[in-house]
Amino acid sequence: MPEPRRGRSRLNSNAPKRKRQDSGPSPGPQGGVVGALLEALRLPHWVKNLLVLAALPFGGKWATPAAWAMAGGAFAAFCLLSSAIYLINDIADRRSDRAHPAKSRRPVASGRLPAPVAAAAGGVLLAAGAAIVAYLAALLHNPAAALHGLGLPVWAGAYVLINLAYSLHLKGRPILDVLIIAMGFVFRAMAGAAAIDVVISPWLVLCTLTLCLFIALAKRRSEIAVLGEAAGQARRVHRFYTLTNLDHMLAVSAGLAIATYCLYCLAPRTVQHLGSAHLIWTIPLVVYGMFRYYCLTLANPTDDPVRVLLRDKVMWLVGIIWLVLLALILHWGGSDFLKGLLS
């Protein structure tokens, strides 16, 4: 245990090791229970909820302030809901996490955040997120619309239920585990579209599913590459996965993601909505970003895809260029000056 080792001498080599272990990406034990709770909320992972805002440009409401307000409310709700799910997941996994070199430092697994405190905080966050969703649903209610305009609570509820099922049981089911992770992102996109009252393209749904499936599989591969034979102790599904079968599934999911994005760009409904087929010029950026992400996970194995994305400046540059190009296409793609380039 660390305590006897710390008691021998504060000047020996164990002191720096102790410091490095506690100095993770989030506040260390100096923050006490509050600091541990903030760490357990995984605030950097809120970037995943930006998918809720995807319907703004693709739904043609990126210049509508009211749509931004509704999408922003949905984004805030999903941030609260996702943090609640992380807390519940950490409580359920606290024993297996202690066998993982990185996850053992998580607040609940390490004991810095008591499980009852984490459970209470998770309940409060679930209630707060549900309250925001209920308020937005009241504004969106329309008996003449699909799902009576209550798509946001339907998709938000599906997101919570599927993630609770994952955290409490289904994460041990091979293949189903990564599909559930990918579906969580699909529900985010569906909820974002419902929040601003637009119909999402089925091709965009499939593209989201396959892209996030690719990311989830890359995470599984990285875990096995890092842990080796001990991977099965840290996560039960790793007794099924191998580097070989994951490489095959990654190749399939990457191909499907690229193909579905291409089909979305060329879909008649997309071309009609944008006024042109110029969205195809974003395809090379998507292909480059996917391949680079995969190469990054091979070169720097990690079980945290968010950290991989946030640390790589090239990925940030690719994302910014994609957004700028998308904005240019949305604004000028259907102009007479460019309309004749593609037919």
Instruction: Measure the end-to-end span.
Output: 69 Å
> Can you tell me the CATH architecture of the largest domain?
Orthogonal Bundle
Q: Note poorly predicted spans.
A: 1-29
Helicity level: 55-70%
What is the domain tally?
A: 2
Task: Classify the fold: give the CATH topology of the largest domain.
Answer: Tetracycline Repressor, domain 2
> For this structure, what is the CATH homologous superfamily of the largest domain?
UbiA prenyltransferase
**Shape verdict:** globular
The CATH first-level class of the largest domain comes to Mainly Alpha
List the helices and strands in order: HHHHHHHHHHHHHHHHHH
Number of strands: 0
Count of DSSP H/I helices: 18
What about the largest sheet?
Answer: none
Mean pLDDT: 85
Task: Give the helices and strands, then pairings.
Layout: H1 2-8, H2 14-22, H3 32-40, H4 55-58, H5 65-92, H6 94-97, H7 107-110, H8 115-140, H9 151-168, H10 176-195, H11 202-227, H12 231-234, H13 243-266, H14 268-274, H15 283-299, H16 305-311, H17 313-332, H18 336-339
Helix pairs in contact: 5-8, 5-9, 5-10, 8-9, 9-10, 10-11, 11-13, 11-15, 13-15, 15-17
Describe the structure.
It is a single chain. With 343 residues, the protein is mostly helical. It folds into two domains: 31-200, UbiA prenyltransferase (Tetracycline Repressor, domain 2, Orthogonal Bundle); 201-229 and 240-333. The protein is built from 18 helices and no strands. Helix 8 packs antiparallel against helix 9 (151-168) and helix 11 runs antiparallel to helix 13. The N and C termini lie far apart (69 Å).
